[in-house]
């Protein structure tokens, strides 16, 4: 059992290194992925900041930055879908499966590479947020717990991306799914508190997994926007754990099954 696990991890790291080498050869694409959420932070902060009424005269960035952290985890889904679909369409995945390597290595390597990319994305966003005046007011362990919840969401969405990437017929089909990612992200508490929305829309937004993670992160950072007048808003911390676990429970087995049945 131990040797099988070690074999899978070693093979997974080999596949992950392949992705890292591709990133080194195409740094512009990777760097754009890191700084695109920063652009969103600057754009929405400038567009909405002056119109937002914040408690005690706090900066709008105190509300916005944790929301952008959450959206960055969602937008990473697009890169996962595209990379997986590209490897499938070019036959790379089938060639890997024909090699004497762990059957889990291809997916594991994708997970390792994308999670590393998400960590760098968060580091870039933290630096940008601090430069714009955002601060966390809780303890360091609470801040680390918030970043842990963000990465847990990214890990869960990773399996959604892997499943979609394995399921689409070609890379062009990813465009349709990418369009749907944006409404999911915007119909949340990422940019505004749900209490400012019409009641029916606010209720939908609060049950969005993005809202649970954003609200829980704000609570741990002690930023405004952490309190919501509903059951799901009042239990955002638990929901920020339960939602990703449910997503993994659904999409990990689906991804494994789809991977086994690939090319059949």
Automatic annotation (TrEMBL):
Any one Gene Ontology BP term: response to antibiotic
PROSITE patterns membership: ABC_TM2 (PS51012)
Subcellular location: Cell membrane; Membrane
Topological category with respect to the lipid bilayer: Multi-pass membrane protein
Domain ABC transmembrane type-2 as annotated: residue spans: 28-262
Highest taxon above the source species: Bacteria
A Pfam family the protein falls into: ABC2_membrane
Record GO terms (molecular function): ABC-type transporter activity
Transmembrane spans: 28-51, 63-86, 107-132, 144-168, 180-201, 231-254
Gene Ontology, cellular component aspect: ATP-binding cassette (ABC) transporter complex
Keywords: Antibiotic resistance, Cell membrane, Membrane, Transmembrane, Transmembrane helix, Transport
PANTHER family documented for this protein: NODULATION PROTEIN J
Protein family per UniProt: Belongs to the ABC-2 integral membrane protein family.
Name assigned to this protein: Transport permease protein
Record lineage: Bacteria, Bacillati, Actinomycetota, Actinomycetes, Propionibacteriales
């Amino acid at each position: 059992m131990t040797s099988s696990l070690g074999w899978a991890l070693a093979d997974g790291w080999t596949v992950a290194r392949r992705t890292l080498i591709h990133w080194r050869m195409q740094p512009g694409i990777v760097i754009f992925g890191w700084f695109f959420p920063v652009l969103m932070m600057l754009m929405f902060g400038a567009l909405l900041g002056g119109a937002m009424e914040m408690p005690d005269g706090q900066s709008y960035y105190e509300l916005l930055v944790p929301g952008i952290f959450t959206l960055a985890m969602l937008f990473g889904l697009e890169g996962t879908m595209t990379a997986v679909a590209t490897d499938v369409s070019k036959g790379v995945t089938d060639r890997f499966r024909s090699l004497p390597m762990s059957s889990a290595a291809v997916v594991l390597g994708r997970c390792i590479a994308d999670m590393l990319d998400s960590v760098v994305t968060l580091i870039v966003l933290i630096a940008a947020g601090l430069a714009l005046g955002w601060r966390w007011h809780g303890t360091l362990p609470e801040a680390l717990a918030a970043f842990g919840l963000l990465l847990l969401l990214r890990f869960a969405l990773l399996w959604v991306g892997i499943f979609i990437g394995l399921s689409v017929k070609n890379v062009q089909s990813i465009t349709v799914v990418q369009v749907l990612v944006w409404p999911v992200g915007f119909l949340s508490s990422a940019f505004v508190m749900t209490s400012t929305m019409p009641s029916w829309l606010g209720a939908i937004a609060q049950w969005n997994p993005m809202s649970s993670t954003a609200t829980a992160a704000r609570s741990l950072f002690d930023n405004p926007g952490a309190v919501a007048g509903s059951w799901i808003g009042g239990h955002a911390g638990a929901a920020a754990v339960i939602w990703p676990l449910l997503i993994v429970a659904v999409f990990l087995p689906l991804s494994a099954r789809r991977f086994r049945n690939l090319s059949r």
